[in-house]
Amino acid sequence: MTKSPITSPLSDSDRKSTGAVLQTTLVDLIDLSLIAKQAHWNVVGPHFRSAHLQLDELVSTARQYTDEVAERANAIGVSPNGKARTVVESSGLPDYPDNWQSVEATVAAIVATLGAVIARVRKGIDETDKSDLVTQDLLIALAAELEKQHWMWQAQTA
Amino acid sequence: MTKSPITSPLSDSDRKSTGAVLQTTLVDLIDLSLIAKQAHWNVVGPHFRSAHLQLDELVSTARQYTDEVAERANAIGVSPNGKARTVVESSGLPDYPDNWQSVEATVAAIVATLGAVIARVRKGIDETDKSDLVTQDLLIALAAELEKQHWMWQAQTA
Amino acid sequence: MTKSPITSPLSDSDRKSTGAVLQTTLVDLIDLSLIAKQAHWNVVGPHFRSAHLQLDELVSTARQYTDEVAERANAIGVSPNGKARTVVESSGLPDYPDNWQSVEATVAAIVATLGAVIARVRKGIDETDKSDLVTQDLLIALAAELEKQHWMWQAQTA
Amino acid sequence: MTKSPITSPLSDSDRKSTGAVLQTTLVDLIDLSLIAKQAHWNVVGPHFRSAHLQLDELVSTARQYTDEVAERANAIGVSPNGKARTVVESSGLPDYPDNWQSVEATVAAIVATLGAVIARVRKGIDETDKSDLVTQDLLIALAAELEKQHWMWQAQTA
Amino acid sequence: MTKSPITSPLSDSDRKSTGAVLQTTLVDLIDLSLIAKQAHWNVVGPHFRSAHLQLDELVSTARQYTDEVAERANAIGVSPNGKARTVVESSGLPDYPDNWQSVEATVAAIVATLGAVIARVRKGIDETDKSDLVTQDLLIALAAELEKQHWMWQAQTA
Amino acid sequence: MTKSPITSPLSDSDRKSTGAVLQTTLVDLIDLSLIAKQAHWNVVGPHFRSAHLQLDELVSTARQYTDEVAERANAIGVSPNGKARTVVESSGLPDYPDNWQSVEATVAAIVATLGAVIARVRKGIDETDKSDLVTQDLLIALAAELEKQHWMWQAQTA
Amino acid sequence: MTKSPITSPLSDSDRKSTGAVLQTTLVDLIDLSLIAKQAHWNVVGPHFRSAHLQLDELVSTARQYTDEVAERANAIGVSPNGKARTVVESSGLPDYPDNWQSVEATVAAIVATLGAVIARVRKGIDETDKSDLVTQDLLIALAAELEKQHWMWQAQTA
Amino acid sequence: MTKSPITSPLSDSDRKSTGAVLQTTLVDLIDLSLIAKQAHWNVVGPHFRSAHLQLDELVSTARQYTDEVAERANAIGVSPNGKARTVVESSGLPDYPDNWQSVEATVAAIVATLGAVIARVRKGIDETDKSDLVTQDLLIALAAELEKQHWMWQAQTA
Amino acid sequence: MTKSPITSPLSDSDRKSTGAVLQTTLVDLIDLSLIAKQAHWNVVGPHFRSAHLQLDELVSTARQYTDEVAERANAIGVSPNGKARTVVESSGLPDYPDNWQSVEATVAAIVATLGAVIARVRKGIDETDKSDLVTQDLLIALAAELEKQHWMWQAQTA
Amino acid sequence: MTKSPITSPLSDSDRKSTGAVLQTTLVDLIDLSLIAKQAHWNVVGPHFRSAHLQLDELVSTARQYTDEVAERANAIGVSPNGKARTVVESSGLPDYPDNWQSVEATVAAIVATLGAVIARVRKGIDETDKSDLVTQDLLIALAAELEKQHWMWQAQTA
Amino acid sequence: MTKSPITSPLSDSDRKSTGAVLQTTLVDLIDLSLIAKQAHWNVVGPHFRSAHLQLDELVSTARQYTDEVAERANAIGVSPNGKARTVVESSGLPDYPDNWQSVEATVAAIVATLGAVIARVRKGIDETDKSDLVTQDLLIALAAELEKQHWMWQAQTA
Amino acid sequence: MTKSPITSPLSDSDRKSTGAVLQTTLVDLIDLSLIAKQAHWNVVGPHFRSAHLQLDELVSTARQYTDEVAERANAIGVSPNGKARTVVESSGLPDYPDNWQSVEATVAAIVATLGAVIARVRKGIDETDKSDLVTQDLLIALAAELEKQHWMWQAQTA
């Protein structure tokens, strides 16, 4: 069923470009949620508990926006793809190390990961400025949340 | 940090075999949660709403046990690995089709997917019978939940 | 009391054009809430329960935004008018049939009704782009919600 | 689908007369809910806040009984009709003025409106005494609530 | 202890006739709750989930009124009897088939079962009109709820 | 302000007779709430805790209906009077003994008190049958609750 | 049972004087709760709703401390007496007028009533300073709450 | 539909023996819930309130496990049968007496009833040890709860 | 620590201009929260209760956005400054009078205060249109809320 | 770390004497919580359920104040000691018997235990009157709660 | 309106001295709430998250007592003044540094700030011992809370 | 009352050996709860807040299982003994140091304490494998929880 059963409120080209932004963001957010869970389970060190809890808040944010982004894709008549293979093939995030990690290494990796997602979301905000203000508004809300958490992770490195 | 910072309540060989079962189950459950979300977003047809909601309950179950399984691995001194690449490389679940799917196709795919997970979890129950009753008890609870949902998905095919 | 007791944060012409958009949207949303309730009560057929419940979510959305839109009109110094007669005289929505309706007929009518509202809300988003970004932001949130539900109703026709 | 798909627990003539009472009450309650919302948005004056809040309680009551009355019609095998046009054509309530209204004018209009609804509901209680005690019980509960609120609005005029 | 330890607010003959109505209703409601659970567990087919959930609402209603009816019997000085054997010996409801049932067969059986209970409750309303208005009021509330659910089950057959 | 600022939905004679029933019930209920609190504080003996808790449920019932009865009086245009002196002068309940009381004496006194209130409420149900069905419905609900609690207090004397 | 079944943590003379203060306060608080309810039901005028709601907060405070004061009496081995007749015979509060009262008259009466209670509670604080600090602490908490509400009622007279 | 639409995770013989255990337990639990309700309504005597409340906790436990046991039967591909007639024909519990019962008689009967259920559940635990650990785990949880309540009922006979 | 430990998603000049807007808004909102509390405590007159409660809703809004604005400053790498001295030195709001104030004077002062804040926030919306859409979106949400409350305060002056 | 890392708001001698009172109370409360739990588990007899539940309320009170007392010690710069050995060595409470106890024996033992704790807490209130009013206030609140429960246990012996 | 519209339960001199204590405390608490928020936003370093969260609990305490202290001033007939300028002119707290601060510097500053507030509150407890026990009780509760948090901040410096 | 008033579902020897395991576990868990509270109050150092909170979760776990273990003892007809003296005499846990402890020392002590409890619980799991699967299941659940927390405490030492 590759022909869309959902009509789009957008013109065909806007649908295509907006759909591409949403698919990119979807994949990044799923990867972010898996990385944050991986970190949540594997962090060790004196600040373990604080980091362990804060990582679950990040998982929670990633999951909430994953859903909103995928449903927005549907709303403009584009099928979202969030399977594991798709994530591996198209995520824009840096790899996360295997095995237990110290809190310091964990914080550094999460700061870098968030920096990468934010840069891509901000690009999406620019790209949707002409094609779909509704999608742009969703990306702005996502950027606001990610940048807030980015500050909170960076604050620990000072 | 590949040397475990966590002591194990198990003997070394029990730790190894139990850890392998937990890692296998972890990967399957993450894959299950991604597949169920994929289906949740892409299902279409007259029973859309029912299937859409039921799929989110499956996501919820998969996520809850993902966490419990990963934390059990830590509790026996084994680092869990739940990254996207690990899922792609070692999941035991069949691939899920891309694009929108009819409710019938969705139900059939979920029934098959659950059947595959259940078979592997039951194998894990056997394997941990001697090595760790605490892990076995977790797998029994997981099987109970998955088999219950398996019935509910099969019931729709009658 | 036709002279406004409420000062406006907008210039007079922006107040007038924005007020017109809000009044139009208000009437559409009240009509939508009455139509969705009518459908909620009169739907019959094998999928009755699913449609019955989903229609109440639509009523709920329509009522929530009815209130926000009317209060936004007040906030810019314009008296909102949501009486039954005003709705009949100025709603932009197609008529909804009398008597019980099958689920299929109900779904088709709701898809069409939502399509009509969305088109008008999107027009309002364009019209307020220069006159009032605060009102525009409200309409964008409304469009996001309506387009999401539009997808969910259309998904049942596939 | 004008032939009822729902069997009635009442004889045919009781079904007809009871159905007429319910349809009349349904329309009055929808009109009441729209009038109370209109007043909620357009009231001004020193007691604004009190009246604004109290009007929403009236909306809430009207909406709750609208639903119960429409569902009771279905339960006796009669299709309820609550569309905007039906309300305009058959409501028994006096018109409500356009534009902002002082608290005094608002209170007076609501007292009159409630008086009109109550008189009609009491007539419905008489008419259903022989035809359907279940419907009568619903109308008695409605009268109890409306007469209580009628007192509270009148109390402000003393 | 067959002599009542509870005095009755009713005359002896009213107590006897009202008590008989309550005992009849009690048995019907217990049987209804067991049938609805049986159906809840054994329904299969594409609408499984909807029917499965709706049946539990019926169980819930039956149980709530079972309790209220039994406690009303006590309140008028009559010992209620709700044991399994009493239900088998005196229930007025048609038998429900063994084994899994399709959604269509389930809906048809529930519609018929509800029709039977409603007819008997309405008879009880007539019988208590002279003997005890308090009991009558309880039966009216029960009829209202059962007739509402009867509509919702019938609606699926249209 | 002895002339009523509240119009009545009843004829003048119905208003008068219904108002008298409501005022009588109001006074009885206030007295009941004070007696039940007195008993709640002064009960002693092995079953202290059970009786102490059950008495507070009776207080709660008495207070809830006190409010509903007084508000119903207002709704029919009659000023309710629930002052301490009015209670002493017109309550129909037997006096309650001073000082600590054994559980047995407490139960006996409460059973007798409830018997007295119920008899008077049942008389009110008869008297309002022609004058006001809305008030009658309130008294029926009150009788249902009091007779249920009467059973529960009597049950302890068996 | 006039001999106390409860031992006292106080000496006999402290028990007697503290008990007298608690009994006085108990009676005042019950009278206050009845007066505030009487006012709650009988207030009329443009500020009806505000006064009606605020009076119920006063009832709530009076009832809460009635219970705490009576239970404190028990805790020091004194039987509390809160029957209607006791209230009429020993309350220190001014009489409250019959029939509906304007908001202004209501506010004035409540301000005077609260003034009277506060003066007596403050006297109780002095009297228990030597006899029982635990009781004194309860009276201080009561004074704090009453004086706060006294301000809020007086504020309306400015 | 006697051929199972649900595949079983068990071998055929394990499915049969486990299914028999579940069906036996299902019937016992339904009977237990009806007996406990019967006792809840018919207990009288000085400890009425305590026993009345405690019996409802037993009903609650019985109902919860009734559902879990029936759903487990489905999960292994066996249709559960919980109709009144089935209960009468195959329950393993002793009969419960008709009419009101003293607290002592009630406690004794419940202690005996629980003893009978527990013995049969423990037998089921043995029988499923080889056939299905998932079902066994459910029966262990059920035994834990029933044995806890058994203690609490026996404690009253000391 | 005057060198920012937090990287900014904005260019340096955008960071500077956006940071200035946020700092200005932060100070205004803190001042608004202190003024609204001052008014909450010092308002007197017949509408005391309504104004007292409404002022706390304003405090609540001011505090919520104070936090969001300060955290947004951090998110773009700017240290927020909300100390008392900073507020006194840079707030753009008019002074609020000392001592008790009548409701009329209070309403007038709050209307003026809100007018001043809104004008400054709207200026901030313009200034951030090019520099940071995420910050602009936050200011738009703030303006929406303040303008809504501005209407509600003005409505009382009509 | 025997030198206090926490400064005290008290003079050294006040810190010492207040600290001694708090340490004494801490130990008594821990012992009380263990005794009440022991009684909760071992009580038997017809009033089992009532006593079992009431004992858990006592545990709850003891635990809540244990925490407040220990934290108060810290707040004045004194390290609290609540280890099992410390309790055995310095508790002022009488021993509680081993094995199951009848309700009568349980009530008697709890009444005696509470009497002992109260006497010691009252002594602490005297001792802190000059040294620390904040600690005294905490002990007064504790005495109020214990004396209330003491009454409720004694009431059962009448 | 400088003449108090609120009568005082205190003599004139007690009103004056108590009022001065309350005004002093009010200003300190507002300053404390602003400082704690400033610290909440500007803290950085490895323990960021812990300190960030703990600071918000301090804000919460400061705000709650700010309100209680201001309302107590009203209750004794004194107008509270909590404007920004008043805080700057009369706060007794040390200045808090601008810009981001390390966790260590933050903890040290908060410990010092709390020490200063506590000393002043303890002085207020002494000053109100003769003038108003109700106010003193409020200050004692405030001291208890501040000293508890003081311990928790100091504990981090050990 | 040393002869058990509670019958056992176990044979005499199974009852004895299982009872011994439960008594041992009970004592260990009470000691664990007291040690964790002691640590909760006496921990100091930069990670104070994290450790302080985490210790209360351990207290919570210890208390919950204390209750379940003691109630299980009763359920098999064995009287549990959890008095302070019994804990001191038979606990298997290492002593915990007096006075304030650094976070590092605290973490080390808790890790060791948990290690000791877990070893003993695992021994209990082995011992009950033949005697009582219901008790074994409870111990498995306890081990799962303790081993999870053991990991979280060890993680801080890495």
Automatic annotation (TrEMBL), chains A, B, C, D, E, F, G, H, I, J, K, L:
<dbReference type="InterPro" id="IPR012347">
    <property type="entry name" value="Ferritin-like"/>
</dbReference>
<feature type="domain" description="Ferritin/DPS">
    <location>
        <begin position="21"/>
        <end position="156"/>
    </location>
</feature>
<dbReference type="Pfam" id="PF00210">
    <property type="entry name" value="Ferritin"/>
</dbReference>
<dbReference type="InterPro" id="IPR008331">
    <property type="entry name" value="Ferritin_DPS_dom"/>
</dbReference>
<dbReference type="InterPro" id="IPR009078">
    <property type="entry name" value="Ferritin-like_SF"/>
</dbReference>
<dbReference type="InterPro" id="IPR002177">
    <property type="entry name" value="DPS_DNA-bd"/>
</dbReference>
<comment type="similarity">
    <text>Belongs to the Dps family.</text>
</comment>
<protein>
    <submittedName>
        <fullName>DNA starvation/stationary phase protection protein</fullName>
    </submittedName>
</protein>
<dbReference type="GO" id="GO:0008199">
    <property type="term" value="F:ferric iron binding"/>
</dbReference>
